[in-house]
Design a protein that fits this description.
CATH superfamily: Histone deacetylase domain
Structural class: alpha/beta
Number of strands: 8
Number of helices: 11
Number of domains: 1
Helix content: 40-55%
CATH class: Alpha Beta
Distance between the termini: 26 Å
Shape: globular
Strand order of the largest sheet: 2-1-3-8-7-4-5-6
Strand content: 15-25%
């Protein structure tokens, strides 16, 4: 996955990491949105742009999974039937984050077939099998020797797996949006939880985004991960009641403060129509 030094000017505005297997072998609740969203990007002309690099994901090394998770966890994921999909999904996040930190792309958007933020050291639920961001951070520390990371998780379900693995890390800021109640550990030096009502709409959500981005700005980090779940849309399965246009506004707020060194990681969401609009809008902002 390369470890070339960062350049002064990225070659690409955006690295878009994808694999067709995500739409075939991904978890059923997640996979039906993948191909429609990717085709929406094609319809918008995003895949033909010289400043957007489409990269095919490769599976993560199993050794990285073993460093993030217990032996019993890995054994359970193998028995689930989604181990290969989870490795490929983690590999997508690793590749996108490397492209950004190595300076080849200003930002990245990583498709997945199985999500990661509910995968803890010794357990998993909610379509999440391996913690893709935790594995990517381990890889980046190993090969590019960057150390400090900010994570903003806007999926409405509490990112308990990420908090379990990375919450105690003094070099990680974990900002977690969630629908009203916490799950798992809350302690740690740099953990912020933004609890919102189940039926929250755009205005209150975006006020929380402003709060989160202020905290990120104050945290000296090498890379910002955005765990992007569009299950927060009112037509999807999450608790929030967000509208079509809010994801573009969100992405613009992020880009205004952080035009580079941002890696979006696809998380929850099942509705293909919502995915086309939400992912399409975010990718267009990233490619501006």
């Amino acid at each position: 996955m390369g470890d070339e030094p960062e350049t002064d000017k990225p070659r690409y505005k955006l690295a878009l990491v994808y694999h067709p297997d995500f739409a075939v072998h991904g978890y059923p609740a997640l996979r039906d949105r993948v191909a429609p969203a990717f085709e929406e990007l094609r319809a918008r002309g995003m895949l033909d742009r010289d400043d957007v690099e489409v990269v095919e994901a490769e599976p993560a090394d199993e050794e990285l999974a073993a460093r993030a998770h217990s032996r019993s966890h890995i054994h359970s994921v193998m028995n689930s039937g989604y181990y290969d999909t989870a490795l490929l999904s983690a590999g997508s996040v690793m590749r996108g984050s490397v492209e950004v930190v190595a300076g080849r792309a200003a930002c990245a958007f990583c498709f997945v077939g199985a999500a990661g933020h509910h995968a803890s050291h010794d357990g998993f639920w909610g379509f999440c099998y391996l913690n893709d961001v935790a594995m990517a951070i381990t890889h980046l520390r190993d090969v590019i020797h960057v150390n400090r990371f900010a994570i903003v998780d806007i999926d409405p379900h509490f990112g308990d797996g990420t908090r379990d693995i990375l919450g105690p890390d003094p070099d990680v800021l974990h900002i977690n949006f969630h629908s009203g109640y916490a799950m798992g550990r809350e302690d740690g030096p740099n953990n912020i939880d933004i609890a919102l009502p189940h039926q929250v709409t755009d205005g209150r959500f975006l006020a929380g985004v402003d709060e989160a981005l202020r905290a990120v700005k104050d945290f000296d980090h090498d890379l910002l991960f955005i765990i992007f779940g569009h299950d927060s849309h009112h037509d999807d399965y999450g608790a929030f009641e967000l509208s079509d246009g809010v994801y573009e506004v969100f992405a613009r707020k992020v880009k205004e403060l952080f035009p580079r060194r941002v890696c979006y990681v696809l998380s929850g969401g099942a509705n293909p129509r919502v995915a086309r609009r939400a992912i399409g809008d975010v990718v267009e902002v990233l490619a501006l």
